[in-house]
Write a structure and sequence with these properties.
Layout lengths: L5 E7 L3 E10 L2 E11 L11 H14 L7 E6 L4 E6 L4 E2 L3 H12 L7 E7 L4 E3 L2 E3 L3 E7 H13 L6 E4 H12 L17 E7 L4 E6 L4 E6 L3 H12 L3 H9 L7 H29 L5 E7 L8 H9 L3 E2 L7 E2 L1 H4 L2 H6 L4 H10 L12 H40 L5 E2 L2 E2 H59 L29 E10 L2 H4 L2 H17 L1 H7 L1 H8 L15 E10 L3 E3 L2 E3 L3 H13 L1 E4 L2 E4 L9 E13 L9 E11 L1
Parallel strand pairs: 1-4, 3-17, 4-11, 12-15, 15-16
Antiparallel strand pairs: 1-2, 2-3, 5-10, 6-9, 7-10, 8-9, 12-13, 13-14, 18-19, 20-21, 21-27, 22-23, 24-25, 26-27
Helix pairs in contact: 4-11, 5-6, 5-7, 7-8, 15-16, 15-18, 16-17
């Protein structure tokens, strides 16, 4: 939305038209102009013609004020609309519009199609993980026919309205911005809310009562206003309405002021009673609210004795109001005409604040169809220009295409050959080319089939070679007892010379393999834990070799980072090789057995992690030929009574320390 440069806030009352023009100057609001046009007759008088009087006042306003390129905002009386406030349950913020729509059907006593309505979340609620907590929502509505009736005089004068707001809401915006501005930046404490202020805007026919603490709002239209004093005087003193109005405004100059005040006393009492009843009702629905004073607005406040009577009988202090503290523009604010009527410009000021983006409540009761119509009308010149440009482009395109077509007609003769004959020659060439391409594709497909068969035959040999390389690597890295260089490993060792319990080798019972489409299915959390345990043990035994094999882990540990991360699971498919074996190399101490799992770690697991293998085409590490993730998954108990002692002693021979393992 484009930023508003200047705005006219117009309040069409029962007695006069009040208008205020403001603009933004940085963070300040500056008054540029104002107008106060009093009607010849009060609109509620029996012989008055309201629409005609409003029309004439608007024409007078337009004749002496510039409204070009300004935002126009209008306030309508509070009794013309409906304002409801409710607290939805804790729900995500995006669900609030649906809840409001449901609440609108319950609260508005008309079909929603016959109503213009809008809503806004009030300040003071809290958000917790996207959930609106303790949020109050304001719902504002007017009947569609009342909206169009209020807009009719404006449209007849050619004024296009941008904002339509209820007068009590405009007054609330002015009070929050100008009198309670420090609360705009505070947070609401639900258990200890700030004191509330009662604002009485005394109009001609009604009095708008607004109660707010800076966060919450409650309003009501009281059916007692300035004209009721006039009507009471016409009744008791047998005067015409015009004479009674003049007497009311000049009561202190009357021949018998006491008689005048005595005649108006019932209206004073009615006003106090209505205000007290409204405040009591509010305090009944908001038990924590506290009233700290009453602010009086409207020219009716000038009625002699009214302020003193309200201060004495309401039971609350009447707060003096001397002017708008945050409204700049000294030429306007200090002018005598503005000072004479400053009490009646509260709604106009609030309208300007809303249009300038400085208001707390920003609801707008302008019909959407009117906004759409205005947007369409604003875009019509651009649309016509676009259509004209499109037609011009189509014309150029047509003539360009016609020129191209005319140059390639079949009858067109170029160099003794017509375009049709040239096309036939090209089609024959294309037909021959397509036939040759078809033959080429068929031969190429046949060649691809032969290549696939050849690759299949070659790959079978390569797979057999891979298994031979894998078995060679395992065989070379399974520990055997060290002998002299002249004795091959295949020679049977004499048990008398090298007892079984002294042999540093591992006997393999079997080797199995299984294919996995997803190696991660084999590498479960239990397997990962064993794999991490094996790595930690090898890091303890061979720190230097481990640092070469796993340099990144060592660097992270040196930096103080947590190195106990989950092992990275193998990705893709592959084979899992399982070996099971045993050894007799167990320590004997005082005839008692002590199994050292460390022997397997220092031999087989060390080789599988750090070992290498000599192949015909070079020397490779086991990782380079694809042997990774070695895990000792099972360590069997030592079978001390498995074999009898070869010496005849009671200590016995430590029989076969069991071992099982797997590799990915």
């Amino acid at each position: 939305m484009a930023r508003v440069k200047a705005v006219w806030g117009i309040d069409i009352g029962q007695c006069a038209l009040k208008a205020l023009r403001c603009r933004r100057d940085g963070s300040e609001v500056v008054a540029e102009a104002f107008d106060y046009i009093e009607y010849p007759k009060i609109l509620s008088q029996p012989e008055a013609e309201p629409e005609k009087l409003i029309q004439e006042s608007l024409e007078k306003f337009l004749s002496r004020n510039d409204v070009k390129e300004t935002h126009i905002a209008l306030a309508v009386p509070g009794q013309s609309g409906l304002a409801k406030f409710f607290k939805p349950p804790p729900v995500p913020t995006k669900q609030i519009p649906e809840i409001v729509k449901y609440e609108a059907r319950q609260q508005i006593p008309f079909d929603l199609e016959d109503v213009i309505w809008d809503f806004q979340q009030m300040r003071g609620g809290t958000m917790h993980e996207g959930i609106a907590m303790d949020t109050e929502v304001g719902l504002f509505a007017m009947k569609r026919d009342q909206v169009y009736r209020a807009l009719r005089p404006m449209r007849r004068c050619g004024l296009e309205l941008d904002t339509l707001q209820l007068a009590p809401i405009s007054i609330y915006n002015f009070v929050i911005y100008d009198l309670l501005q420090e609360r705009l930046y505070d947070e609401l404490d639900p258990d200890d809310p700030p004191d509330s202020l009662v604002v009485l805007s005394l109009g001609t026919e009604t009095t708008d009562l607004v109660i707010t603490n800076g966060f919450r709002l409650w309003q009501r239209s009281i059916p007692v206003g300035g004209s009721h004093f006039t009507k009471q005087l016409t009744k008791d003193m047998k005067l015409t309405f015009a004479k009674a109005e003049h007497l009311k405004r000049n009561a202190r100059k009357a021949e018998d002021p006491k008689q005048v005040f005595q005649a108006m006393r019932p209206v004073f009492n009615d006003m106090v009673t209505e205000v007290q009843r409204s405040i009591s009702y509010f305090l009944g629905i908001d038990r924590q609210a506290k009233i700290n004073g009453v602010l009086l607005l409207g020219n009716t406040v000038k009625l002699p004795g009214l302020t003193q009577y309200l201060a004495k009988n309401l039971g609350y202090d009447v707060i003096p109001f001397d002017g708008y503290t945050r409204l700049n523009g000294q030429e306007v604010v200090n002018s005598s005409a503005f000072r004479d009527n400053y009490l009646s410009f509260g709604a106009s000021y609030g309208l300007c604040l809303q249009a300038l983006g400085q208001a707390d409540l920003k609801t707008n009761l302008i019909p959407k169809e009117m906004v759409t119509e205005r947007l369409v009308r604003a875009k019509k010149p651009w649309a016509l220009a676009s259509v004209a440009s499109l037609l011009l482009a189509c014309s150029f395109s047509f003539f360009s295409a016609y020129s191209d077509w005319n140059g390639v007609r079949k009858e067109k003769n170029i160099g003794g050959v017509t375009w049709g004959e040239a096309e036939n020659q090209v089609k024959q060439a294309q037909s021959q080319s397509s036939a040759k391409m078809g033959e080429h594709d068929a031969k190429k497909n046949n060649l691809d089939k032969l290549k696939a068969i050849g690759n299949q035959l070659v790959s079978n040999g390569e797979r057999r070679l891979l298994w031979m390389e894998m078995l060679t690597a395992l065989n070379n890295n399974i520990p055997v007892h060290p002998v002299d260089a002249q004795t091959p490993h295949s020679v049977f060792l004499d048990p008398e010379k090298i007892p079984f319990d002294k042999r540093q080798d591992i006997q393999i019972r079997y080797i199995e393999s299984k294919y996995y489409e997803k190696l991660a299915d084999w590498f479960t959390d239990d397997v990962a834990q064993l794999y991490t345990k094996n790595k930690s043990e090898l890091q303890r035994l061979y720190p230097a070799v481990y640092a070469t094999r796993f340099p990144e882990e060592v660097k992270e540990a040196a930096k103080g980072k947590n190195s106990k991360k989950k092992a990275v699971k193998p990705d893709g498919d592959g084979w899992v090789i399982e070996m099971e074996g045993f050894h007799f190399y167990n320590t004997l101490e005082d005839g008692k057995g002590h199994l050292s799992e460390e022997f397997v770690q220092r031999t087989l697991m060390r080789n599988l992690f750090f070992g290498k293998v000599q192949l015909p085409d070079g020397n490779y590490s086991l990782q380079e030929i694809g042997i990774t993730y070695p895990v000792m998954v099972k360590n069997g108990e030592v079978e001390w009574e498995h074999m009898e002692s070869t010496t005849g002693s009671n200590s016995g021979l430590a029989g076969g320390g069991g071992m099982g393992g797997g590799m990915g």
